[in-house]
Amino acid sequence: MQNGKIGVTTENIFPIIKKFLYSDHDIFLRELISNAVDATQKLKTLASIGEFKGELGDLTIMVKLDEKAKTLTISDHGIGMTAEEIDKYINQIAFSGAEEFLEKYKNQSIIGHFGLGFYSAFMVADKVEIITRSYQENSKTMEWSCDGSPEYTMQEAKKQRDRGTDIILHLSEDSLEFNDAARIREILKKHCSFLPVPIAFGKIKEWKDGKYVDTDKDDIINDVEPLWTKKPADITPEQYLEFYRKLYPMAEEPLFHIHLNIDYPFNLTGILYFPKIRNNFEIQKNKIQLYSNQVFVTDSVEGIVPEFLTLLHGVIDSPDIPLNVSRSYLQSDSNVKKISSYITRKVADRLNEIFKQERADYENKWDSLKIFIEYGIITDEKFAEKATDFVLLKNVDQKYFTLSEYATLVKEGQTDKNGNVIYLYATDKQAQYSFIAEAQERGYDVLEMDGQLDNHFISWFESKNQGTRFARVDADVIDKLIEKETKRKMALTTVQQDLLRPVFDAQLPKDDKMHFNVVFEPLDEKQQPVVITQNEFMRRMKDMAAMGGGGMPFYGQMPDSYSVVVNGNHPLVAEILDEVEKGYGADELKGINKKIDTATTDENNLNELLKDKKEEEIAQAEKDKRTELSKKLDELRKERTARLEELGRGNKLVGQLIDLALLAGGMLKGESLNKFIRRSVEMIEK
Questions:
Q1: Does the annotation flag 76 for ligand binding?
Q2: Are 294 and 194 in contact (CB under 8 A)?
Q3: Is 31 annotated for ligand binding?
Q4: Of 72, 92, 426, 598, whose CA is between 20 and 30 Å from 173?
Q5: Domain ranges of the chain
Q6: Residue 97, marked binder
Q7: Is the dihedral of CA 458, 459, 461, 467 positive or negative?
Q8: In degrees rounded to 5, what are phi and psi of residue 514?
């Protein structure tokens, strides 16, 4: 029997292992099974080169839980260890101190370094035993035991076993969560589902006499030859789907898949799937599983693939990805960047291939692909360069176009007087129907841009295509969205517009969250009498602020600003003007207008006299006269405005036209909608 101390100079190695080396305690089982797999694989290698002449036999790794004894045992039939090897790999943790070790190996994998993978067992066990026998001839079964202190015992076992190793964990009181078969099965499924050596935990159960009972068949929890290890030519489409269902049992069927297989300048295999993404793409992340030689590492792969590719599902397996001590976090180095670039290129090439070969199917799936591709375009320049060949634009008639196809379609008809090509778009076909219909009557095409990332995509596109501008179809009247050389004459004079502005203002909604500005435009008399539009720039800024983007959150606090566009050439507007002028009283209106004109003239004349004087050179009498004229003019205008607003509030036609415009924009609701309906009925009855 051998007693001794594990080769460390500090006695706090186990607390440090427990606290720092592994981010999750359930990693211990992965490490111990990985060691068992390594031992098994090494034996198979030795057999293949003739150094092991014996029978390999059943190489299944057995995991056994004794809930009564609170022990967990991992048994393999691999190469085993001699007493000298136990001393070398278990006892001699060759470093001068724990802290120095952590510093030395913080940027590289410790798997295989001095048995640290084995020592993860002390995270959950207050005593660990090893019973092992080497594959070498005439070897003896050895027993090793340690209670978590630097002291250990090692001796020849009284009872000999066959080749291989048993690791027996006596679970500590604070780790009894692992003294549960369901918990162990969960960990095995998570970390060991695709290891290359069979792993058995318990027996397969069958339904008998009204309950599940164990059979005599071992329950193998892993697939030793997962799909990504096979050649794509040997895999059927149905097998790809079956594998996806195995990975994501509750998910909808994917759109496409990509099989990765490269051995130079690095090793990487895997299968990536394009999932159906609905509304919130954030919940789709962390669905790619990263493996190293079929050992699960993590599903947080931001360091190994570009941000936009984290929306994909599937698996990546590479022994060349550098890992830290816990195998849980990726390190940034040139190899990782190469892998990332390769995956990006493969994804882009695959999408381009599908688009060219199966365009109809690609278009059918575009609504699900769109958010993924737009995300890639706005976050990854290299992907954006390739994606211009297969990104699509869809119009409100459900027709699809590549960027170049659409540019050709609208260039002639939708180029404004300044030479800019205007891409009209709608975000809600139903709410913006009247605007869409008017644009289409002019022969214009309207895109449907109702996705989460469309605002960002539009900004990206405009930055790359000078002379092309997107405009939402309700951002202004159509004649202003795509301005042409010819202009219509306005039927209303400036004075008449000033008269009508308070009339329309009087019946606009009063809401701190909305601001309305009445403007007059010389539209076709057949166009709507009143239209409510929202400025493109301000709306975009508010939309981006609402998504937490744009870098200008103050836009989110600003009220929504709308233009109430009154068609100065519409007969109904002329009718309203006539009613206002009559309602005010011709003589009364002329009288106050004359007073305003006189006061304005007097103010202008005085300002002309004073324009060359500095403020200190102006006499007090002149200052008083200026103040008096300004006050008088202000009072006269307020008097006229008050009277016009009074007339506006009593004008049912004005209210009806404004409500119709609000209704067309989806802004007429609640009590206002009810009043509109009642008024409409009254006007019909008359």
A1: yes
A2: yes
A3: yes
A4: 92
A5: 2-220, 227-369, 392-481, 494-584+651-685
A6: yes
A7: positive
A8: -135, 140
Query: What is the CB neighbour count within 10 angstroms for residue 589?
Result: 18
For the stretch 672-681, pLDDT in tens is: 889 889 888 8
Owner of token pair 């119009």 = 395
468 annotated ligand binder? no
Q: What pLDDT is attached to residue 675?
A: 87
User: Given CA atoms 82, 86, 88, 89 in this order, what sign does their dihedral have?
Assistant: positive
- Here the tokens at position 108 are 């590289």
pLDDT of residue 109: 39
Q: Do domains 227-369 and 392-481 have the same CATH topology?
A: no
Closest CA to 605 of 622, 581, 585, 582: 622
Q: Cα(23)–Cα(42) distance, rounded to whole angstroms? A: 28
- Name the residue type at position 200: A
pLDDT number for residue 322: 61
Fold held by 2-220: Heat Shock Protein 90 (3.30.565)
Confidence band of 94 (pLDDT split at 50, 70, 90):
very low
Question: Domain 392-481 belongs to what topology?
Answer: Rossmann fold (3.40.50)
* Amino acid 96: pLDDT: 31
For domain 494-584+651-685, give the CATH number. 1.20.120.790
What is the side-by-side order of every strand in the sheet holding 61-66? 2-5, 151-156, 142-146, 125-133, 164-171, 71-76, 61-66, 199-208, 211-220
Express each pLDDT in 198-234 by its tens digit. Answer: 999 999 888 888 888 888 899 999 999 999 999 999 9
Residue 326: what are its φ and ψ, rounded to 5°? -95, 0
Per-residue model confidence (pLDDT) at position 569: 94
Q: Which residues of 161-186 are buried (b: 16+ CB within 10 A; e: fewer)?
A: eebbbbbbbbbbeebeebbeeeebbe
Look at residue 236 and tell me whether its pLDDT is greater than 90: yes
Q: Is 96 annotated as a binding residue?
A: yes
Alpha-carbon Rg for the chain in angstroms: 39
* pLDDT tier, 103 (very low <50, low <70, confident <90, very high otherwise): low
Q: Which residue has the tokens 């975009």?
A: 540
For the chain, the average pLDDT equals 85
Asked whether residue 139 is marked as a ligand-binding residue, the answer is: no
For the domain bounded by 227-369, which CATH number is listed? 3.30.230.80
Looking only at the bridges linking them, the beta strands covering 400-402 and 392-394 are antiparallel
* Amino acid, res. 678: R
Tokens linked to 19: 């606290």
Q: Give the highest mean pLDDT range of 105-114, 252-261, 263-272, 327-336.
A: 252-261
- Binding residue per annotation — 538? no
